[in-house]
């Protein structure tokens, strides 16, 4: 296994240095490849300090992910509440629900010079982790968020079965993660026709795609169930 040698500037606060080192290691090696000893070495601190701040490796990695994801989820909820205020009490249009869900992650994936490689790699790593670990991450970081968005999807699709809405939301999220993790493949895949550096355009297209696919699937299910 290739050894990561990237370290965190010592002037940064100890807790942030530990989180940054954990992100470097998790992105490169996955959860199994993270050790408290190596995190401490890269953070220029000691193992006791890492345990003091986070308790265990699992606690550290989940806190690292929360540190990255919490601002994105907060912005998602803010945009959703803003859309609800503008709707005047009417059910939200699906496109506004998916704008609230997808725009913030597009913003997080964009750096000052284009796509943020570290964030994209972190998203890509999410595909390789064991289901048991991802279940814990979902329960702690996404459960409340998914329940909140599901409420709005139920209101906007009042005749749809809850099971169908969950399936379709799963497909939207999986498409979002796949598009971000594989963004570098877009240019060679399209022969250079599509530009992989324009994350904002990719997210806008993804919003349209998700909205249309979600609605079309629900209509097809309803049509087939009535036949």
What do these coordinates show?
With 227 residues, this protein is mainly alpha-helical. It folds into 2 domains: 1-55, Homeodomain-like (Arc Repressor Mutant, subunit A, Orthogonal Bundle); 66-225, Tetracycline Repressor, domain 2 (Orthogonal Bundle). Helix content is 71%, strand content 2%. It has 11 helices and 2 strands. Strands 1-2 form a two-stranded antiparallel ribbon. Helix 2 packs across helix 3 (47-54), helix 3 (47-54) packs parallel to helix 4 and helix 4 (57-87) packs across helix 5. The chain starts with 13 loop residues before the first helix and ends with a helix. The model is unreliable at 1-5 (pLDDT under 50).
Please describe the topology of this protein.
Blueprint: H1 14-29, H2 36-42, H3 47-54, H4 57-87, H5 94-108, E1 110-111, E2 114-115, H6 117-125, H7 131-141, H8 143-156, H9 162-181, H10 186-189, H11 199-225
Antiparallel strand pairs: 1-2
Helix pairs in contact: 1-2, 1-4, 1-6, 2-3, 3-4, 4-5, 5-11, 6-9, 9-11
Number of strands: 2
Q: Report the major sheet.
A: 2 strands, antiparallel
How far apart the termini lie comes to: 56 Å
Return residue spans where pLDDT drops below 50 for at least 5 consecutive residues.
1-5
Name given to the CATH homologous superfamily of the largest domain = Tetracycline Repressor, domain 2
| Rounded radius of gyration (Å) | 20 Å
CATH architecture of the largest domain: Orthogonal Bundle
The strand order across the widest sheet is 1-2
Instruction: Return the string of H and E elements.
Output: HHHHHEEHHHHHH
**Mean pLDDT across every amino acid position:** 89
């Amino acid at each position: 296994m290739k050894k990561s040698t990237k370290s965190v500037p010592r002037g940064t606060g100890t807790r942030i240095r530990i989180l940054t080192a954990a992100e470097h290691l998790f992105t490169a090696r996955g959860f199994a490849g993270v050790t408290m000893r190596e995190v401490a070495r890269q953070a220029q601190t000691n193992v006791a300090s890492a345990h003091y701040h986070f308790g265990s490796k699992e606690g550290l990695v989940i806190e690292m992910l929360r540190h990255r994801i919490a601002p994105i989820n907060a912005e998602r909820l803010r945009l959703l509440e803003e859309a609800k205020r503008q709707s005047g009490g009417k059910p939200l249009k699906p496109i506004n629900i998916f704008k609230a869900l997808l725009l913030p992650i597009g913003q997080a994936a964009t750096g000052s010079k284009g796509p943020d490689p570290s964030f994209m790699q972190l998203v890509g790593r999410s595909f390789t982790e064991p289901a048991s670990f991802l279940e814990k991450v979902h329960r702690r970081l996404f459960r409340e968020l998914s329940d909140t968005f599901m409420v709005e999807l139920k209101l906007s699709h009042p005749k749809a079965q809850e099971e169908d809405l969950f399936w379709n939301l799963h497909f939207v999220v999986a498409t979002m993660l796949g598009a971000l993790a594989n963004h570098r493949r877009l240019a060679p895949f399209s022969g250079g026709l599509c530009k992989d550096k324009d994350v904002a355009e990719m997210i806008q297209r993804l919003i349209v795609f998700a909205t249309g696919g979600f609605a079309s699937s629900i209509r097809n299910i309803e049509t087939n169930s009535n036949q």
